[in-house]
Amino acid sequence: MSEQRQQRHDELLILIDQAIMQCDDHRDMLILACGMISRTREMLDRVLGPNIRRSLFTEITNENN
Questions:
Q1: Which residues lie below 8 Å from residue 44, measured CB to CB, with a gap of 6+?
Q2: Euclidean distance between the first and final Cα of the chain, in Å?
Q3: What is the pTM of this model?
């Protein structure tokens, strides 16, 4: 990853960390996590297409079993 990409990556992670810190309890964290999964799916569908996104999710799921 280039230095510029790494810097942008770090900037975006700060936003995610800030959202996590705003959670009051485990329920808020679950709501946030579900929202993040939903948005992640939408972004991957837009960028990669649904078929590649499904393959990616399947591969990740199989690696963790």
A1: 52, 53, 56
A2: 28
A3: 0.75
Integer Cα distance of 1 and 26 in angstroms? 34
pLDDT tens-digit map of 9-55? 999 999 999 999 999 999 999 999 999 999 999 999 999 999 999 99
Q: What single-letter amino acid sits at 54? A: R
HSE value, Cβ hemisphere, 13 Å, CA-based, for 43 = 6
Q: Please state, in angstroms and rounded to a whole number, the distance separating the CA atoms of residues 31 and 19.
A: 11
Amino acid sitting at position 19: A
